[in-house]
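Figure 2 data, in text form.
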Amino acid sequence: MHNPWRFDSITKYTVYSKVVNVTDDPKSIENIDLTLEDCNIHVMQNDIKYGNGDLQEAVASANSVLTFKKLNLRHFFVKNATAGSNAKLAIVGTMGRDDGL
């Protein structure tokens, strides 16, 4: 009998979520290549700067949401916009499944 509540076997995507504490030093969200098909990054508590590994000059304000498509979290770096004003990020996205479904 088919179980209609087994979403893992019938969905095309897997959900990714993570909370990250931001510091004054730039750091990537992940240490491995991890590309999200769709990604929302919720900036909480304080402003951040973000960019690649060499430059983080784009600014996102506290309580804002950054939205990306096809974002590799290994190449997305963040740091506090103001030294000592630590921010927190809540990252939610979808990953394509690689099992042929």
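Caption note: The longest helix spans residues 7-10.
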